Amino acid sequence: MHNLKPVIYRLSVFSLILFAQIYANASDWPSWRGPNQDGTSAETELVSNWSIEGENLLWKADFMGRSTPVVLNDRVYVIGRIGKDITQQERITCFDAKTGDEIWNYQLNVFHTTITFNRVGWTSPVGDAETGNIYIHGIQGLFICFDKDGNIVWSRSLTEEYGRISGYGGRVHTPILAGNLVVVSYLNVGWGNQSIPRHRYFAFDKKSGDLIWVSTPGGRPLDTTYSTPVVVDINGQMLIIGGNADGSIYAMKQTTGEMVWGFKLSKRGINTSVITSGTKVYATHSEENLDSTEMGRIVCIDATGTGDITKTHELWRHDAVNIGYASPTLKEGKLYVVDNSANMYCLNADSGMVLWEHSIGTVGKGSPVWADGKLFVTEVNGKFHILQPSADGCESLNVQEITRKDDDHYAEIYGSPAISNGRVYFTTEEHIYCIGRE
To answer: How far apart, in whole angstroms, are the C-alpha atoms of residue 20 and residue 37?
Structure first.
């Protein structure tokens, strides 16, 4: 008799994924790259202009942040920082998505880290449509599951339990949901087969917090990183695909963490997240390429291979473009990327040919979001752009320069926009904003 357990398990996993997709509000933004994991939204009738003086500004709240909010069931969840000197803490706050009223706030002490205060709150939360729970990875190494009302469901101390190594300069990884698992990665050194420092992926049961598997797909870490993986079905197999601290892109089986393929890319760690379309994976970086002295690359990878696919499954590449912080966005066959100098490029996603280039400022770190035929993009020096892309160019519909309230200096913006129910949410180092129509 055949063993039916693997088949039943695969069906169960598929059912969980399908259930979560049905259960989720179509307009929610449950993770930092949105419902499609690629920075796109199906929302329509979004604003094309707004102003910090009040036009189409529905609400703003005091909040010191650098991450991307998530929106789940009419609530906005965001990680940031609060306090001064010895009172400095990390925080996760829940706001009413319609009014901006604070619903709950939880503050965490900063310990087991040398991260400076202005870089606290690097990660974004992730929300689970099935349970309504919110998961956060703090800079001090606490991995916490909250219910929608801010009660702790379970918590793991990753530094104490698994030898987590604090990311340099605030580089901490945002968790992802993968079926009935919540997965978070980091550099660690432990015991046994974890005695050598590596970038590892830890998968926990999302409801209980029990550790299910650990995966070590890569080699010697070349840097601390913060690349967030994506979960995708490739020819009927659920894979977790993401950038690694050894400079490669890896695909792992969702159920076990077993590595399926690896693609070597950079001589430093990968910070940007990949995006996928069908069986294609798009990845970027801004360091020295593994096979040339040029800095930076955009690459399209065929995700159907196994083993080391570096030399066999590259579909196209575009070199000497430094995209080390902002992750790509893909819509209608066009790939949108923002380089480290805040130049936006639009490429043909099938060929890699550059269609146009548009400057949005001087420092590019926030990832672009496509919705309603427009691009919503942040720039570090306090700029928020609404752009109208076309086949051969890009029109600026609106740009707001946001300054700090107490001096004539820009308010830094590192996160990306989140879009839900006709509204756009984003954070600066002083506020969280909500723009849209009434």
So the answer is: 15
DSSP, collapsed to helix, strand or coil, labels residue 170 as helix
**CATH code for the domain defined by 5-436:** 2.130.10.10
CA atoms within 13 A on the CB side of 49: 6
pLDDT, tens only, 71-125: 999 999 999 999 988 899 999 999 999 999 999 999 999 887 778 888 888 899 9
Per-domain residue ranges for the chain?
Answer: 5-436
CA pseudo-torsion sign 33, 39, 44, 47: positive
Instruction: Please report, as a single letter, which amino acid is at residue 406.
Output: D
Retrieve residue 422's tokens.
Answer: 């006709």
Question: In which element (H, E) is residue 118 found?
Answer: none
Interacting residues of 293 by C-beta distance below 8 A, sequence separation 6+: none
Q: Residues of the chain with pLDDT > 70: what percent?
A: 94
Q: Name the residue with tokens 């913006």.
A: 413
Range with lowest mean pLDDT among 43-57, 126-140, 395-409: 395-409
